[in-house]
Specification:
With 495 residues, the chain is an alpha/beta fold. The chain has three domains: 1-43, MYOD Basic-Helix-Loop-Helix Domain, subunit B (Irregular), CATH 4.10.280.50; 45-438, Type I PLP-dependent aspartate aminotransferase-like (Major domain) (Aspartate Aminotransferase, domain 2, 3-Layer(aba) Sandwich), CATH 3.40.640; 445-495, no CATH class. Helices cover 37% and strands 14% of the residues. The chain contains 13 helices and 15 strands. It has helices at residues 12-15, 30-41, 61-69, 82-98, 117-138, 156-164, 183-189, 212-226, 243-246, 314-352, 379-386, 418-437, 470-487, and strands at 110-114, 147-151, 168-172, 194-200, 232-235, 259-265, 277-281, 293-295, 302-304, 355-357, 366-371, 395-397, 406-411, 447-449, 462-464. A seven-stranded mixed β-sheet has the order 1-7-6-5-4-2-3, with helices on both faces. Helix 9 links the parallel strand 5 and strand 6. The chain is globular and about 70 Å long.
Amino acid sequence: MDASVHSTFASRYVRTSLPRFKMGENSIPKEAAYQIINDELMLDGNPRLNLASFVTTWMEPECDKLIMASINKNYVDMDEYPVTTELQNRCVNMIAHLFNAPLEDSEPAVGVGTVGSSEAIMLAGLAFKRKWQNRRKSEGKSCENPNIVTGANVQVCWEKFARYFEVELKEVKLRDGYYVMDPEKAAEMVDENTICVAAILGSTLNGEFEDVKRLNDLLVEKNAETGWDTPIHVDAASGGFIAPFLYPELVWDFRLSLVKSINVSGHKYGLVYAGIGWIIWRSKEDLPEELIFHINYLGADQPTFTLNFSKGSSQVIAQYYQLIRLGYEGYRNVMENCRDNMMVLKDGLEKTERFEIVSKDEGVPLVAFTLKDHNNFNEFQISDMLKRHGWIIPAYTMPPDAEHVTVLRVVIREDFSRTFAERLVIDITRVIHELDLVPSRVVSTNTITVTGGEEDADNDGTVTIANQSVLETQRKITTAWKKFVMNRKKTNGVC
């Protein structure tokens, strides 16, 4: 009998368990394979309700078509796909001009498309390390113990670079009310082994832009005093496609003499699906020639400077689509709309009188907020209960020395509408009301009961914090709940 007349769900392939960690002995029908995978994926969260992520979750249908039409092109085959290579070069030049690179009219920009800002940062770091090594060798000095100065709020990709490529990461600690790198302290930490200072245009913690101009001025003075040549890299993963359109008067880019390279994520506010980043250098002198590889076995000579080799062309083409489709005016409209919706959410949260806003109005369009009163519940509980309404909102602790502060963060993307903002305020208000009705987990004797068997808890699951100050109490509660969340394998994190 023809198997096609049977319902997919009545077939043995979806009625019995299939091997999960080994390949099956036999093939299964394509319809069954599709249905099995599709059904499991239904249990994932809704990407558009994932407000933890900065990554684009919606594009126009026309761009979706271009992505699917080019999904089988390997970008590295430049000789076979010369138009795709040309589109990538156009993107590099458009972004370089957007960042005010000092280029002559006919001078090509120096940069490359990457899988994301993580790869871009690796490439920038390698260029700085090699430049520093070359200079030290020419001066007859040791090339050991290179370091990078950053704020403690940097993304994990900087820690990866430091560990993978044996560079010390010197972090400027944060403090209460100031959650980005202090440029004065950063300049003080610079020494002769510093290959660069990394500034962030759009901290993932609270969206704030670091003061790159102040950092540049301080390093110009220090370089003049010491004879060093310490440069700046700007990690503009989140803010690089925001500042030029919302804050064109803000000086943070190649207009500053010590800014030698900038990375930006096309898959964040560049408005492209995940898988594309960009690294732009100020000039060709800032990218050591020995780091560039030349290959010819795919056709013509092809210069390349990437950590990976093969990758899809789709996101490069999608980036070009967005740049020519939206133009300056279109990007400005999108960013202004994101900022307006951010203000709707911020105003709604402030009206509850339950939260303190720790994000800034100028910066990445996001709202980071913390509870004013932690006596009855905390941010982790709010995050957990909001999942019942479909929202994915991270709760996390700040880096040292502000780790006692716990924050909720909502990232406003292009597809986060005003209706969404208003609905989220309603749901957060409902969750707070529900938590108000739950017996307090923090009792009058200054003890917190957390089930789950934390390492520093009493045998009955109670963490005693008697005779502690308010600040110490909040730190103890935050630590206990953080461990509780980790034991439950929650995945809320900083994205």
